[in-house]
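DATA SHEET
Item: assembly model
Revision: 1
Owner: S.N.
Input lines:
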Amino acid sequence: MKFNNRNVWIDPSAKMGTGVRIGDNSVIYANVEIGDGTVIANDCVIGEPSGDYYENPDYKQELTRIGHNGLIRSHSIIYAGCVIGDQFQTGHRVCVRERTKIGHDCRIGTVCDLQNDVSIGNNTWLHSGNFVAQGTNLRDFVIVYPHCVFLDDKYPPSEKLHAASVGDYAQIGARSIIMPGVSIDQHVLVASGSTVVRDADKYDFVRGAPARRVSDVRKITLPNGEGAYPWPHRFDRGMPWSEIGYDQWLNQQEP
Amino acid sequence: MKFNNRNVWIDPSAKMGTGVRIGDNSVIYANVEIGDGTVIANDCVIGEPSGDYYENPDYKQELTRIGHNGLIRSHSIIYAGCVIGDQFQTGHRVCVRERTKIGHDCRIGTVCDLQNDVSIGNNTWLHSGNFVAQGTNLRDFVIVYPHCVFLDDKYPPSEKLHAASVGDYAQIGARSIIMPGVSIDQHVLVASGSTVVRDADKYDFVRGAPARRVSDVRKITLPNGEGAYPWPHRFDRGMPWSEIGYDQWLNQQEP
Amino acid sequence: MKFNNRNVWIDPSAKMGTGVRIGDNSVIYANVEIGDGTVIANDCVIGEPSGDYYENPDYKQELTRIGHNGLIRSHSIIYAGCVIGDQFQTGHRVCVRERTKIGHDCRIGTVCDLQNDVSIGNNTWLHSGNFVAQGTNLRDFVIVYPHCVFLDDKYPPSEKLHAASVGDYAQIGARSIIMPGVSIDQHVLVASGSTVVRDADKYDFVRGAPARRVSDVRKITLPNGEGAYPWPHRFDRGMPWSEIGYDQWLNQQEP
């Protein structure tokens, strides 16, 4: 249904891997590389030029690279200069600004708005409607639930930006605000609707506006009495330990 | 202006009612039925396939049905398997995921993001920018103001989802969070910016984060001293009682 | 890349200034005027008709005017009846409803949703994802950070709307809610995540939900000990005082 080569425009300089499919009404601009088997659905823009393109006759389009076996859903916009790993998946209407770097096996939900120079590790998922400020750093296996906002300006407006960072396995509850410069450590759980104004330590469960430490995530139990966190012991859909279990997978990793 | 049959694509299997208009750049995929007089504006996608379409060579497109006299504004995406009643109206850039069921006379505002298997009754309106999680149930005459979030996961991430539900005539104030599994009863008023973490009983007025019961909605008065709630007594624009008044209309309904 | 005249549709009645560029897949509807040097990027809709267009055979398209040297990024929708000044810039997927008036040198970020009859002064910037209710009035040099919501209905649902207003130089922190009818005076700073339920006086720094006055903005200091507010003394990127300083620029203004 989506791949009729209707109103598709691919710049001659774009390098398309084997089995790449481009949906109707999509455009691939100059200096874009797309890995084998990746699907760009309809009405997408890959290699969107930065503002300089409109003003500078000497504008030079940076390399945009998307890895293998990705699926970019319709109406998404990926700016030039983005480098994105394999198995990348998006919802609809995602916008990723220039020079953002994203690892492998990441997912970005519908209407997410990632600013420029964001860096995201591997296996990190963002649900719908998140805003991620310039320079924010999300590490591996982070999950950001819907409608969070990551900020970068302590004294708005200013030119000096302080991006936030989030460690491996942290979970950022829906509709949370992460204030500029805040560092959230590994395995932290941020409750929905929190405003995180100071750093959170490893395993902290924080909640509120401003968010305060409520307990240690390892004390949170499921209705059946088992420990809920760290979550990798009980959740493996789409995770690299889905066939062998988290402990065995962890033992196999490089130290 | 919008209906020039320019870059329109309609699958041969789609069944189009009398007087249906399809805007430029819109696509109607397979197995879609659109009722008489419905307008699909420009740049829409009706019958968007689920993720299975990209992976499964035996993908089967579910029936998508939109009733009579609807108006779907531009850039909206309605997934396959949705069944939607008559007089349906949307803003722009709405996304409704697979198998969501919506009754008659409903309105979904700009940039709303409804997940799969949501069920919505009749005459329910969602303003702009709402996120509605999988399985959420909104009954009749509910109004959800802008930028609310309905959640479904108590111990994120997990596979066991607990959807929220909202009863007839309830009003959900802007920028509210409805936590997983919460049940909001008929005629409840949720103040703007609330986080609703526990069930709200019929006629409760709740406010805050976490939301607490402030009073009974029937005690809220307008500046002129009249009671403000239940609101159907004083508001009838677009409602079925607009010509006869709420009390008379209510008497006419089936018991 | 963007300007190949591919699938572009311009109504014959539209008046296009010198050097105007229209991106691929964009449409310019009837009775639109676009000033010299303005760029409309790809997939935009300028002169979007109001709901009346779908129902009324005598629908008359109001004049839509966009000034000189603007840049409207892709997938934006500007309704008929909007009058917008020079050097207007938008992000992607902006929607501006009918009859909204915007001065010169304004910027509206990605996915902002401005309702009808909003009025915005000069040099006012809205970051990403803001919702601005019908009739809201934002004056000059206001900056609204991401994901704020401006409301207009004190007793939802009702027909009597109370729009909010924001004075010159005020800064509205990210994810804030401005309640209906609230008046925010000049130079006010609203902290991120606030819910502003009552008027804020000149130079107030307000924070919280509900927001309370914390101090006078003139007492907020930067890490180097200098005063942070009023901000025009320390920030000039894109501002008319960028070459001469704020004090000298202020002296040159009409009293």
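QC remark: The two ends of chain A are 46 Å apart (CA to CA).
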